[in-house]
From TrEMBL:
This is protein-serine/threonine phosphatase. It catalyses: O-phospho-L-seryl-[protein] + H2O = L-seryl-[protein] + phosphate; O-phospho-L-threonyl-[protein] + H2O = L-threonyl-[protein] + phosphate. Its EC number is 3.1.3.16. One of its GO terms (molecular function) is protein serine/threonine phosphatase activity. Residues 373-419 are annotated as: Disordered. It comes from the Eukaryota. Belongs to the PP2C family. Residues 55-346 form the PPM-type phosphatase domain. Keywords: Hydrolase, Magnesium, Manganese, Metal-binding, Protein phosphatase. Its cofactor is Mn(2+); Mg(2+). It comes from Vigna radiata var. radiata (Mung bean). It is an enzyme of class 3 (hydrolase).
Amino acid sequence: MGCVHGKCCCGEHTSSDDGSTDYRETGFVRSHRKNILAQRSLKRAPVPSHNFILEYTFFTQRGYYPDSPDKENQDSFCISTNLQGNPNVHFFGVYDGHGQLGSQCSNFVKERLVEKLVNDPAFLEDPVQAYNSAFLATNQELRSSNEIDDSMSGTTAITVLVIGDTLYVANVGDSRAVLAVKDGNRIVAEDLSSDQTPFRKDEYERVKLCGARVLSVDQVEGLKDPDIQSWGDEESRGGDPPRLWVPNGMYPGTAFTRSIGDSLAETIGVTALPEVKTFQLTPDHLFFVVASDGIFEFLTSQTVIDMAASYMDPRDACAAIAEKSYKLWLELENRTDDITIIIVQIKGFSNSGTFRVGSDDINVGAVLNSRTGTPEIPAAHESDVHRSVRTSFSELHSDQPEASVMGPVHSAECPRPIE
């Protein structure tokens, strides 16, 4: 169905008996199928050491770029279970490529990062050190690649490694992982990662010491005073965030302070060294979300968790969150970013009960702990499940929405920043 003025026209939603919405059969999925890759069945990864199950699904959507209608999805992701043949070790990662060769970068990292992590002798004894080594080694291998020029291209990476009842979260860039935590009669979003952008004072000061100029596009083009080093915060940043520029040039314009690749940006402080955080699971931890900033650009962590918790089926939740994000992009930017989301339910730790999220009652027990809310699925046995978002189901056919776009104006002297 065509869309007017870039607004996404979606069909009516079909509600099930439990009040959830089956987005797999609605206008959003039907009208965008050519560019969607979604897991149509839930997969399970048991963690026998602590007697619980991870049940996961994913959804990815190529962005809508009116000026580049053939631009491919630069997101990629990796779901890898039973690492080293160990049924208690599982990995989930999302990679958001950017620049002219962003897709190649994200797919390169998708393959190499988990491989280097697993092959590290210290992998299970010291996962934090293994993570640091894997990120830096992957970055170096990308830098040395003859097929990919990473001077102005690269990828962010948000990854969650599950070892028994512990989550190890490693991040470079502005994609995000969020944990749903039961708190009395609420479900609260707990960020498992911290976006690495110039909005963060510590990251701002670090890149400044490395020689970066930190300015918005309007500032670097002379439309705003460059001496006013105040851009608000990430939640209210609008469409002109602070970016990194070399001292005497109009590049690279990255809005993040860490990534894999981006060798020119590395000269002004952008680094592939991840921030690694450790979290111990408890019965109050219900599920976690791993997603690219295509999801979080206009949706808060709490909104994403609220939406995910309100659906019986996480496949519906993925589609609903993607649709909401897609609509907001078109309303506020008249284009969309690539969108990728993985939802991982933690089944076995949670107790049944009815809780209230916002103004809506939800049955958390039914959502996260029921053996009948979702079909019984055999345990996953594959040791490496790598999916490229450039792949699509052969039967999916249709076009992106039509739209006329007036994007930000950039002068000839200032190339468009990396996106």
